[in-house]
Specification:
471 residues; alpha/beta; Rossmann fold; Four Helix Bundle (Hemerythrin (Met), subunit A); four-stranded antiparallel sheet; 15 helices; 14% strand; RNA-binding
Length: 471
RNA sequence: GGCGGUGUAGCCAAGUGGUAAGGCAAGGGACUGCAAAUCCCUGAUUCAGCGGUUCGAAUCCGCUCGCCGCCUCCA
């Protein structure tokens, strides 16, 4: 498949480096608060990419996502609330995993925490100091940016330009304003660890270098995150990797666009944000997922209640088809007819379109369009076909579920199947109601339908029987 | 100042040289005891504006205008 590589600044063919195994590292949360709906975009997008690679490309994906559990924001939060940094980190790490579950997103293969790797980071920083790429000032250690020949290659900027118009404060004791902190001397009361430069804590950029190498080994295929991380975070990772070893670092760098609200980028500091768990509770995982994936992942996405409502309606259209067909045909016996086989051949074309779209820089928007065209095709067949020809509609449902799977869509079980008491009772009422309708006792028949609706069960009378679904 | 993104129907949104996908909303018709759903029909002579290249441009080039971002912690 083809993916846009920020490092190359163009779309390139992507293949796993070896053994059909893809190593993917996605920058994870700093656990000082709940995620807002902007933070959740890379979570949804890149886990969908992961699933697509697993299900449709036949690759094994090792998906590593760090948890940053020590940094300035956590320390500030601790000072504000009186809780310990550890307690805050635990609270929001748990909240994060709970959110993943409610989003229907698979857990990462590994979720290494920064605080579990401080020793390794100290060793790493020592190596950089030994090699002349880092220097100590008053207990802080800085990375010497000017020593890396192609610093700025990822973000497309040159050191000289940055210095000219830079807003960076020169203060501190940096040799160069762009030198970044590898190790911070601890102030009293802050979490700290021993190091050759005194007690302190690691800077942010180092953990990803250590952890990606440790957990992905040779499979440094893809490093992903929001495009606000291109500079300085990812640039600084690359610089450290180059300074520490000649071994190659990540080949592909993928970046998602920012979520906007009211035309501006969403930020905690701007106050224009909504918590992800609140939106999720309001609309459900399927609608939220559809909303994100109906816009190309590299472009900015504007949050809006209208957009979520449109997503909800669009998802409903597909789900209705699935529910109706399963309600009508799930237990129907019979073999595929000739006309049914022709239909199955037709819908295979939509699968091909979906794959082509997904392979083209993960164009979920076109992939979803193919799904909608498949739904239209199936609806037309459904409106026209009779008898055993209709059995082929089950193939459409299987295909919809297959195509929806990487996207986290259309996986929910219909309520109609199985042998639950509920299903049995609804079937019984439908049976009785059919009798009422045949005797033109429409007032009673309507009462059954209305009262079932109040209970959350929707009845639909069609030429092929009465169908039901749960609302 | 440096670097980058973006502007497509009422709304959302694909499409980067071959003659405008898809969704939502809206209107008309069919079907239906009614309802819901579904089907059919209705939409951009046109892709911010102007100019250029080309047999051909939403797509390439130039200029103008609007909006957003990175260069500082940030998904």
């Amino acid at each position: 498949m083809q993916l846009y590589n920020t490092l190359a600044k163009r779309v390139q063919a992507f293949e796993p480096a070896e053994n059909r195994t893809v190593g993917m590292y996605v920058c994870g949360p700093t656990v000082y608060d709940h995620l807002h709906i902007g933070n959740v975009r890379p979570v949804i997008v890149f886990s969908a990419l992961r699933k697509y690679m697993e299900r449709f490309k036949g690759w094994r994906v090792v998906y590593v996502q760090n948890v940053t559990d020590v940094d300035d924001k956590l320390i500030r939060r601790a000072a504000e609330t009186g809780e310990s940094v550890d307690a805050i980190a635990k609270t929001y790490t748990d909240a994060y995993f709970s959110l993943l579950e409610r989003l229907g997103v698979e857990r990462p293969s590994a979720s290494p925490r920064a605080t579990d790797h401080v020793g390794e980071m100290v060793e790493f920083i020592s190596l950089l100091v030994d090699r002349g790429y880092a220097y100590e000032r008053c207990g802080d250690v800085y990375f010497r940016v000017a020593k890396v020949a192609d610093y700025g290659a990822l973000s497309g900027r040159r050191l000289e330009d940055q210095q000219a118009g830079s807003r960076v404060e020169v203060g501190e004791d940096k040799e160069n304003p762009l030198d970044f902190t590898l190790w911070k001397a601890a102030k009293p009361g802050e979490p700290d660890w021993p190091s050759p430069w005194g007690r302190g804590r690691p800077g942010w950029h180092t953990e990803c270098v250590i952890m990606s190498r440790k957990y992905l080994g040779a499979h440094l295929d893809i490093h992903a995150g929001g495009n606000d991380l291109v500079f300085p975070h990812h640039e600084n990772e690359i610089a450290q990797a180059a300074a520490s070893s000649d071994a190659p670092f990540f080949r592909f760098w993928l970046h998602n666009g920012m979520l906007h609200m009211g035309g501006e980028e969403m930020h905690k500091s701007l106050g224009n944000f909504r918590y992800a768990h609140e939106i999720l509770a309001e609309y459900g995982a399927e609608t939220v997922g559809y909303f994100y994936l109906s816009r190309h992942y590299r472009k900015p996405l504007d949050y809006s209640a209208d957009g979520l409502r449109a997503a909800q309606a669009a998802v409903g259209r597909v789900r209705r088809l699935i529910e109706d067909i399963e309600s009508e045909l799930r237990d129907a016996p019979g073999e595929a007819t000739e006309r049914g086989r022709a239909f199955a051949g037709t819908i295979a074309g939509y699968r091909a379109r979906y794959v082509a779209a997904m392979d083209d820089d993960f164009n979920t928007v076109d992939a979803i369009a193919a799904i909608h065209d498949l739904v239209s095709e199936a609806n037309r067949f459904r409106a026209a076909a009779a008898g055993d020809d209709r059995l082929a509609l089950r193939d459409a449902v299987l295909l919809l579920r297959e195509l929806g799977e990487p996207l986290g869509l259309f996986q929910e079980e219909s309520a109609t199947g199985g042998s639950s008491i509920e299903a049995g009772l609804v079937d019984l009422l439908i049976d009785l109601r059919r009798e009422l309708r045949s005797r033109k006792a429409f007032d009673l028949a309507d009462r059954v339908r209305d009262q079932l609706a109040d209970l959350g069960v929707e009845l639909k009378d069609t030429a092929h029987g009465t169908l039901w679904s749960r609302r």
